[in-house]
Amino acid sequence: MEFEDISADIESVVLTKEQIAEGVARIAREIERDHTNHTPLLIGVLKGAVMVMADLARELRIPLEIDWMAVSSYGASTKSSGVVRIVKDLEISLEGRHVIIVEDIVDSGLTLSWLLENFASRQAASVRVAALLRKPEAMKVDVPIDYLGFDIPNDFVVGYGLDYAESYRSLSGVGVLKPSVYGGS
Ligand code: PRP
C-alpha cells in the first residue's frame, strides 16, 4: 500500500491503488456501453474529483469532453442544509449533451442532489452520475448513482482526491484517517 511518508496518519486501508484502478475500469466499461453513439461530457466536481476524473477519462475508450464545476456550501455550519454556491461554473453548454457528473465521493448526497437539480434546467439530453465512493450510512437524501465504484463504511477517509484540511489528496489509495490527526478520540 502506497501511503508513502504519511502512512503514520492512516489507521487502516480502505482501498488500495490496485482496487481503485479495478473500480475505475469497471465504471469505464459501463459508461462505454451506454455511450456508443455520442460524445459524453464528463463534469468533474472540484477539487476531490480530480484524481478519479484523470484516471477515468484515460481509461475510457470513447471520445469524450471534460468540464469542471466548483461548488461550496454556504458556510461550514450549513453544509447539512444542502444549500450550495457555485464558485466556478461550467464553460461548456449542457444543451443537448449526454452529461456524466464525476464525483470522488457521495457522502450525505446533498451536493449531488443540488447539482442534479441545478442541471435539470440546462437542457441536457441526459444526466448520469459516476461516483467512485459512496457512504450508504451517511446519505441524507436519496440520489441516483448510475456508475458506482465502491460502497464504504461511514469513516473519515482521505486519499485519492479526498482531503482533510487540504492534505492527503495525493495519496494513491483511500484510507481511514487516525482520529488523533483531527482531534478526535
Ligand atoms: C466532497 C466531495 C463531494 C462532496 C460530497 O467535496 O468531493 O463533492 O464533498 O459530500 P456530500 O455528499 O455530503 O454533499 P468537498 O465539499 O469536501 O470539497 P472538495 O472536493 O474540494 O474537497
Keywords:
single chain, 185 residues, alpha/beta, 9 strands, binds 1-O-pyrophosphono-5-O-phosphono-alpha-D-ribofuranose
Task: Write up what this structure looks like.
This protein has 185 residues and is an alpha/beta fold. 21% of the residues lie in helices and 30% in strands. The chain has helices spanning 17-34, 50-59, 110-119; strands at residues 10-15, 41-46, 65-73, 84-88, 98-106, 126-134, 147-151, 157-158, 174-177. It has a six-stranded mixed β-sheet with strand order 4-3-2-5-6-7. The protein has a three-stranded antiparallel β-sheet with strand order 1-9-8. Strand 2 (41-46), helix 2 (50-59) and strand 3 (65-73) form a beta-alpha-beta unit. The radius of gyration is 16 Å and the shape is globular. Bound molecules: 1-O-pyrophosphono-5-O-phosphono-alpha-D-ribofuranose. 1-O-pyrophosphono-5-O-phosphono-alpha-D-ribofuranose (PRP) binds at residues 45-48, 103-112, 163.
